[in-house]
Amino acid sequence: MEIPHQQFDELLQQVRELTVRVHRLESLLHLQAPQRAEQVSPPAPAVTRASTHPALVNREQIQRPVAPPAFVPPGASSETANLESRIGSHWLNRIGIAAVLIGVSYFLKFAFDNNWIGPAGRIAVGLIAGIAVVLWSERFRSRGYRSFSYSLKAVGIGVLYLSLWASFQVYHLMPSGVVFVCMLVVTASTCAMALSQDAEILAVFAITGGFSTPLLLSTGVNREIALFSYLALLDIGILALVMFKPWRRLLLLGFVGTLLLYVAWYAEFYDRSQLQTTLIFATIFFAIFAIAPLLMLRDEHAAGVMPLVLAFVNAATYFLQSYAMISEVSTTAMAWFSLVLAAVYLLLNRLRPKASDVAAEHNLRLMHLALAVGLVTVAIPIRLEAHWITIGWFVESALLLWVAGRIKSDLLNVFALTALLLGVGRLLLFDNFESTSLIFNMRMAVYGVAIAVLAFVAYNASKRDDESARTIGMLAVISMNALALRALSCEVADYYSQQMAAMRPLAGAWQSGDSSQMRSIEIARDFTYSALWMAYGAMLMVIGFWRASAFVRWQALLLIAVTTGKVFIYDTSRLDRIYRILSFVVLGVLLLAISFAYQRDWLRLSSSRTRSSGGAA
Which of 371, 370, 391 is nearest to 381 (CA)? Predict the structure, then answer.
């Protein structure tokens, strides 16, 4: 059967189109890498024109479509491909740069050792080579090889800095001022390239070179004003750069570079005579990087922790720097300095940066508020001494609670509870009181402040309905009773300690009868403990019945149970007969009175149980 020539060509065209469609479907299903249509399309069949009839065409001359490759599960080799791509494009690139630099340095050293090139020629070769490499890198960038272009720029910029360093430190061909200006030109040119090419990596090169300049030109001479003025200008330039570009990581790089150079200078050159100048520059650096987190909020990805970390580290660094300098002169001045710094953070908390992320701005405001509270808390032990530190923390806790209630801030409540815990911990573990009078002394005053603040905490918690507030209120009531009982017990101990001290002989041996008198005082003290605890338990029970509070009544029952154990276990074996009788009689009367109150059902406990059981039924 003979096929007309025109129909045969149409058939071939349909075969080509079907082949293209099959390959496109395979690409969508990830059966093979996508290819351009013109690469997939088979070439036009070679049809011999020697024959005059289409039937005589050799069918073997028609190129058949290539069979698709074997099926590969999607994602089976993605990790391997990514690792391979990263090694090939990044790590090999960096290793290659290092290898080139090492090779060139060895060659130059060999040439220098053999005096092939003089000092001036060596510097000229370095400068020309650095500029040439930077210019050559632009050729690769224009062709789309941006990463490789930036790598070459890193090589060229590094060669320029090293050549300028060698011209001053090694060969002494140029004065430090000229070399410094040249390095500034290199830094500024790199920044200009970073802005024009929108390349953050070039800005990193420029800032790294800028902070390396003082190290490269260092002569071991103290030039505080020149060094810190340069660092301040460099940091301000970084702020300006971040205002135009969202390169907030540059701020962290600037902070680290400034801190390292500051610490290096401080360890080498600082003395007290430089306090004023050093503190001024430290304040300038603090102000720059206190503003930096606000600029970070302009970034669309500012919701992370970077602004918070910079704000906290900047505040901690500045405070420690100032403390190391000011505390040597006056602790009072340092306490006022801490309070002023807290006021600064309260002002920063009021700032509202434009075009910022709402969540990130809220988190930064909380960080500023936390720093202000922390600085106030730290100022108290710096300025005050002994128990006044404890009182200061209690007063701070009460003020924070009051402010938190006014502005409805849970964070301030957390800070208030933290200050309260600091005060209670110091009161119980560190404060030592020596008083000659009973009740009306400093220890009772401090305990009274603590109990008042705990009562304020319980009162605030009672006005809230959430579970956490109820828990905090219960803990506050328990702590309040525990501190009150401890304070009264300490007064009892002091009273009898004073009597024992009066019985001790000033000189010589003990007189006959002294030991028996000491024994009588100890017995009276132990009985007073029992009487005090029973009286306090009875008071709690009365309050529990009056306020209809099962929580307070359970505290009373627990304290009475402890007192009962003391009476039956300790008092029966240690106390004299009269005190033993009094202990049991008083305890028995108290227990009978409490039992009678429960039997009279003054709180209607039985009716409430009946209602609850009826409701359950």
Answer: 391
278-312 pLDDT, tens digit per residue, is 999 999 999 999 999 988 886 655 556 888 899 99
DSSP state of 49: S
CA atoms within 13 A on the CB side of 614: 6
Which DSSP string corresponds to 581-600?
HHHHHHHHHHHHHHHHHHHT
The pair of structure tokens assigned to 46 is 């070679």
Domain boundaries defined on the chain = 5-61, 389-495, 524-603
| Per-residue model confidence as pLDDT tens digits over 190-217 | 999 999 998 999 999 999 999 999 998 9
Q: What is the phi-psi region of residue 562: left when phi exceeds 0, alpha when psi lies from -120 to 50, beta otherwise?
A: alpha
User: In the numeric block, which tokens belong to residue 173?
Assistant: 């061909």
The neighbour count for residue 125, using CB atoms within 10 Å, is: 15
pTM here? Answer: 0.69
Q: How far apart are CA 74 and CA 415, in angstroms?
A: 53
Query: For 321-418, where are the E strands, in sequence order?
Result: none
CA–CA distance, 10 with 258 (Å, rounded to integer): 75
**What single letter denotes the amino acid at residue 259?**
L
Cα 281 to Cα 259: distance, rounded to the nearest angstrom: 12
SS3 304: coil
d(CA 543, CA 540): 5
Q: What pLDDT, on the 0 to 100 scale, is given for residue 593?
A: 82
Cα–Cα distances in angstroms (integers) from residue 565 to residues 99, 523, 562, 571, in the given order: 82, 17, 5, 9
Query: Within 10 A of 599 (CB to CB), how many other CB atoms are there?
Result: 8
pLDDT in tens, 319-347: 999 999 999 899 999 999 999 999 999 99
